[in-house]
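Q: Given only this backbone (110 positions), what sequence would you predict?
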């Protein structure tokens, strides 16, 4: 089990370096958030564990495109961030206070 966990964390770390980036995103309500966006089909907040300066991000968003739509998850470790209800281009995130998701026809963060 431990060997598999280490392998997966190494893969997540590589993915964050290759397919992730920092961007300031703005909700439809005008709230500015420092985000780390990651193009991956993996889910779970653990994929972001080793990002440098993780504590400076308001929101962490892994996303991918399937054949018809964009799929997003969102995570936050900050106490003052409540993800459900955040809207981007009219698309609302739903779920738990610190972990939520949504889908859209167009990319929300371009």
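A: Predicted residues:
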């Amino acid at each position: 089990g431990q060997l598999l966990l280490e392998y997966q964390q190494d893969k997540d770390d590589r993915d964050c370096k290759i397919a992730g980036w920092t961007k300031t995103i703005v909700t439809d309500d005008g709230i500015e958030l420092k985000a780390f966006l990651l193009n991956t089909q993996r889910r779970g907040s653990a994929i972001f564990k080793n990002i440098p300066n993780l504590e400076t991000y308001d929101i962490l968003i892994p996303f991918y495109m399937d054949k018809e739509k964009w799929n997003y998850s969102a995570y936050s470790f900050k106490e003052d961030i409540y993800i459900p209800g955040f809207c981007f281009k009219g698309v609302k995130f739903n779920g738990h206070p610190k972990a939520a998701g949504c889908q859209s026809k167009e990319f929300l963060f371009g």
